[in-house]
Each structure stands twice: as C-alpha cells, then as structure tokens.
Amino acid sequence: MSAVSLPAEAVPARELTSAARAARNRRVKVWSIRVALVVAWLGSWELAATYWIDPFFYSKPSQVWSKLVDWFTVGTSQGSIWTNIAATMEEAVIGFLIGALAGIVLGVLLGRSPLLSDICAPFIKALNAVPRIVLAALFVIWFGLGMQSKIATAFILVFFAVFFNAFQGAREVDRNLINNARVLGASRFQVLTTIVLPSATSWILASLHSAFGFALIGAVVGEVVGAETGLGLLISRSQGNFDTPGIYAGMIVITVLALLAEAILTALEKRLLKWRPTAAHEQGAQI
C-alpha cells in the first residue's frame, strides 16, 4: 500500500494556515485574560465599596459609570464634556507637536555636532533636573489662565522626552556608512536626510509613544493649576466638591484619549518603518 504524497506547494500553505490559527488563538487567549482581569478588578472594587470600605472616599464602579453617563448625556458643571475634551486635546496636541519638533531638531543637531554637544551639555542637564510639573504654576503667572500656559507645560514635558532619544539616535548612526557616503561625494545635507534621519527614526518614534502621554499630563496639570475649561478643571472641581466619582470619570476619559493617541502613533510607526525587517521578539509579543 503506497502513501499519498502532497503537492510541494501544499506544505508551506498548510504551515501558513497553522501559524495564522496559532496567532489568532494567542490573541484570543491574551484578550480573554485581559478582560477577566478587568472584570475581577471592577467586581472586587464594587463588592468592597458596597460592604467594607466607605464609597464616599473610594467610590465604586457603578457610581463612576453613572457619572460618565451623566457627563455625556446631560453635561458637566463646566459645560459640554465634548468642549472640555476638545480644549484638553487641543492643548496637548499643540504642545506635543511643538515639543516634538524642537526635540528632534535640537537632538539631531547636537547629536551630529560634538562641539555644540559639549557646550550645551551642562545647560541641558540643568534644565532637565528642574521639576517641570512645578513650572505649570509659573506658566500660569506668565501666560494667564488661557491655552498658552497649558501648551507651555505640555511642550516642556515633551521636549526632553524626544530630545534625548533624537540625540542618541543621531549618535548611533554607523560611521562607516557616513564615511562611505562622503567618499562618494554626498554633501552634509544629503548625509543628514538620507542616512542620519532614517537611522534615528526608530529612536524618535519610540520616544513619541511616551511623549504624547506627557503632553496630556502637561495639559491636565496646567488645567488643574488654573484654567477656564478642560478635563483638568473638571477633576479639580470634583476634588473641591468631594466628588470622587467625578475624579475617576475624568481619569477614565483621559486614559481613553491616551489609548486612542497611542493606537494612532502605533499605526503611524508601522507605516513609516515598513521597510524595517520585523524582529523575532516583535513577532511573538506585541502590547
């Protein structure tokens, strides 16, 4: 009795199908565990706040959910929730863009110029050592309660997060590659745009993930210190009224906004780094 032989091209196709099924099962498993953890956490919190701890201080998920529904259907004490979200996002996005641009330009410039780097190093380190959140109060005095003070706080938080990565990325460029390009007649501008910036892109994009979170923190902290609208103002007013569900509701809205921004940045990173081969560890574990 002879064994049945499969066509040569059928084996790789079967392996690909098996690999796709394994990847799908892994995603289902990961998300199932995540959902179970969230349900367990919320359930234990609700149970504890109902029977053992004081919900006045700790609130509970059902009260937070009611607050969120109230904000999105009726409105907040400071007007529409969408107006407050738009104000916070506008401050965070503008601060993020200006801070990221300044961090990339100065980081690459100092990373490619040892003399400038040596001159500016003590000043950069001194500025980085300043507790930047405290500057939010100073910016309110300088720029008032308007949007400028929140943008300045977001800018100062984003700048250093991006600057150090851009600086290191510009320094990590392969010197042999640069020397070969110069031997072939490439100008300094061509070396910068075709070798240095593409090589530093991974470093810069990695910093942008955390930088937008810093921009949101800067905008919200600025609004807590003093503002006319925004999510930080809602949290500050909730604190003043001992409205614990309001504080949690503000935190949840900010978290959702940060996760949406993270998804957009991840999609942008994948598109810009499509040319880069996928590392083995990235195939197995993605957050």
Automatic annotation (TrEMBL):
Keywords: Cell membrane, Membrane, Transmembrane, Transmembrane helix, Transport. Residues 85-265 form the ABC transmembrane type-1 domain. It is a multi-pass membrane protein. This is NitT/TauT family transport system permease protein. The lineage of its organism: Bacteria, Bacillati, Actinomycetota, Actinomycetes, Pseudonocardiales. One of its GO terms (biological process) is transmembrane transport. GO terms for cellular component: plasma membrane. CDD domains: TM_PBP2. Gene3D superfamilies: MetI-like. The chain crosses the membrane at residues 31-53, 92-111, 123-145, 151-168, 212-235, 247-268. InterPro entries: MetI-like (IPR000515), MetI-like_sf (IPR035906). The keyword Transport applies. It is found in: Cell membrane. It comes from the Bacteria. Belongs to the binding-protein-dependent transport system permease family. The keyword Manganese does not apply. It comes from Kutzneria kofuensis.
